[in-house]
Amino acid sequence: MYKIPANTLFIGQNLIYVPECHSTNSLLSELNDSSQLPEGSVVITDSQTAGRGQRGNTWEAEPGMNITFSLLLRPVFLQAKDQFQLNMAISLAIVDALRKFVSNGIKLKWPNDIYINDFKIGGILIENQLKGSALSSSIVGIGLNINQQQFSSPIASSLYHFTGIAHDLNHVFQDIVAFLEAEYLDLRAGKSMILKERYINALYRFNENHHYESEGENFQGLISDIDEQGRLCIETQGRSRVFSFKEVKFL
After folding, report:
1. Distance between start and end Cα atoms, the chain
2. How far apart are CA 251 and CA 248, in angstroms?
3. From 90, 128, 161, 219, which residue has the greatest number of CB atoms within 10 Å?
4. What number of other Cβ atoms are within 10 A of residue 108's Cβ?
5. Would you say residue 163 has pLDDT above 90?
């Protein structure tokens, strides 16, 4: 079903397809542990039985209707303190790919969700390995709802809902990996400041006044920035507050 990309140098050139697995991130990690896989290796499946999101959240996806894969990268050029730059590059690649199908409303909900308008259509889970103060390898898990039409969550949606047509999963996958490679090479070339500017401009609720919750406190503020550690900066009551993953809830 999925073909080796004709438009990339290394991402997806080692393509491992399995009809079903527990988790593409876990499977790719196991395969890489048993025999060192080349950078750009991809594990892709029609069905995950134990898909994971950020901090152990589960990922709901109907078998055969969506795109679920994991990618092995070796970003040894990145210091551990700069690891969120990889998240930015991956996120922007997905936005770029989806804009071929939906021109408006595609946003990045910090830290790892893909939105169209106010609906979640995908997510990213990056698991990094360190060697000293730098990254040695990263497994990038990507799940995108493409053709699924029914969801248990009221905020979940799919590309189908916004285009009204079913999409060839392999064609969408080919587009995604091409953009992934382009953004990753830009990151490797030192273009992190350009990536950050684009990432902030693509942020869901950027520079808009909304309600949030942190440690039981409800407050109103606007997202103004992402700091060097990838933390979310929200302006509220005349001051800037900074939040790490799971420290703030969008209301």
Report:
1. 40
2. 10
3. 90
4. 24
5. yes
| Helices 84-98 & 192-201 angle (0-180, nearest 10) | 60
Q: Are 17 and 46 in contact (CB under 8 A)?
A: no
Residues 95, 52: Cα–Cα separation, whole Å: 21
Q: At what angle do helices 169-188 and 192-201 cross, to 10 degrees?
A: 130
Q: Are 145 and 122 in contact (CB under 8 A)?
A: yes
Tell me the pLDDT tens digit for each residue of 207-244.
999 999 999 999 999 999 999 999 999 999 999 999 99
**Cis? peptide before 111, omega within 30° of 0:** yes
Element (H, E) at 124: strand 119-131
What whole-number distance in Å separates Cα of residue 53 and Cα of residue 169?
Answer: 21
Q: At a CB cut-off of 8 Å and minimum separation 6, what does 173 contact?
A: 2, 44, 67, 69
Percent of the chain with pLDDT over 70: 96
* Pair of tokens at residue 136: 């040695």
What backbone torsions phi and psi does residue 58 show, to the nearest 5 degrees? -90, 160
209-250 under CATH 1.10.3470, yes or no: no
Residue written as token pair 């949606």: 157
Q: How many residues does the chain have?
A: 251
Cβ atoms of 190 and 168 within 8 Å: the answer is no
Which residue stretches of 17-82 are H helix? 24-34
- Report the top-level CATH class of 15-201: alpha beta
Q: Tell me the domain boundaries of the chain.
A: 15-201, 209-250
- Cα 130 from Cα 136, distance rounded (Å): 5
